[in-house]
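Hello K.,

You asked for the raw outputs rather than the summary table, so here they are, unedited. I folded two proteins back to back in the same session to keep the settings identical. This is the first:
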Amino acid sequence: MNHFVEELKAVQISLFAIDEAHCISEWGHDFRPDYLSLTGITSLFPDIPVAAFTATATVKVQDDIIKKIGLRSPYVVRASFNRHNLFYQVKSKEQVESQILNDEYLFDRLRILRKKIAEEQNVPPFIIFSDRTLHEICRYYPGNLSDMKRISGVGDTKLERYGEVFIGEIKAYINENPGIQKRQSSDEQSFFPHASLGPKRIKGETIQKTQELFEKGLSMVQIAKVRNLAKSTIAGHLEQLIRDGKDIDINRLVDPAKQDEIKESFLTLNTWKLNPVVEYFNGKISYEEAKFVRALLQQND
């Protein structure tokens, strides 16, 4: 990062434009820790104008953007959130109350099962499945391994380890409550906007290309330069590859001496959030290092 900053100082820059600026705010809906590296931009380049743009910031987030980036007496332009091309549609549903109750009852049963497995394996429950994954299971009642794999948070490894036992619990619950009707993905979108009961989205060849270059020995910076992408994008690719169980040598990304300590901090703090873990180390690790180790813990999550 320091080398990159020095390179920037050597060129003539007229303006810094920060898009999706709401990502710098922890109060926003799409906080991205990488954006925090922008907090020093006005002190490093005091004579260069800085503009920040976002279409989805609340007043609190707007104030946070100004504070975090260090905008100097900024000229603020605000427009309405109303977009004529977007609209809400409400459809009536039947037996809503019974569906909600069934979801809650099954969720409680799956949490008990998760806790039992976690205690047997001496790990925190969220290592088995996150609450988000359990909620989605309760929404679709997957009845076989194929359906289970389509649930967000269920990869090949966890499917093999826990799929049958969770499906068994679901089937037992359905047998005890024969009036339950399984939801179909064709009728409604998944509870979580990024996931559905249809096949998991394939991100295409771009991640594979990053993997190929990394396996040839290129660093993240080199891959970013070759592919004309941001380093943070390449880091995101590698994070996903690690999480998917691909053959990525994490020792090239995180000092092996740090890995066990970072793993332990996630388990000790009982969270997947990056901020508490990075703060726990008081600046000794980066967000990227924490991301890669988290992905290793979540492998095939």
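The second followed immediately with the same parameters:
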Amino acid sequence: MKGLNTTVLVIILCTSQILAQSRGIYIEFEEVQDIYSLLKEQASAIPKEKASVLGLIKEQGPWVNHYTYEYINGKSAFRFLNSNVQHLSDYIAQLRNFEEEKIYLIAAKDTTLGYVDTVECHEWQLVPGETKNIAGYECKKAIFKNSVVWYAEDIPIPDGPGKPWCGLPGMILMCEYSPYHSMTAKRVETRNNIIIEFPKNTKPFPSVRKGVNWKTSDN
């Protein structure tokens, strides 16, 4: 009987490990860009004939975009649901292969096509002593160039929204690109039915597009 109990325990432990490996993470992100406040700060540089545009932008309110992030078994997918980001507007998703450190931008006009590039890790400045609760997770602060991020060590995925972030010991749940531009996790949950497939049709992706380095730019 003792041997049987041991066998059952081993089976339970093995099953738990398999389930843990197949369990994925699902995150909903909200991006807010206060274009009016940004332009108002730069009002002196705006031609007088275009100054009236500020009023229209103020009436429209901040730009709000929504995205989803999924991770499972060394693969992630960041999907642009309604992105206004100019240098990513031609794409609907960013996929990442953690084992090979490759990323794929999926074209909006041809979802079978992926522009492939490598992941570059950042040199972070960790800020001790500062924490923030985001979507139920305690997050720590780190800085890269002009971007401030908050990452959750309880989600041990070295990734984040919007770019192929790399180098932190946890998932980034909030990015503050400037006082007028941020992206924040609104919902985090585990899921078992996540499927991420990389495109078979690929092309090299130019790192610099329209003068903007999409992997390392500040916004």
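The first strand starts at residue 24 and ends at 33.

Happy to rerun anything if the numbers look odd on your end.

Regards,
P.
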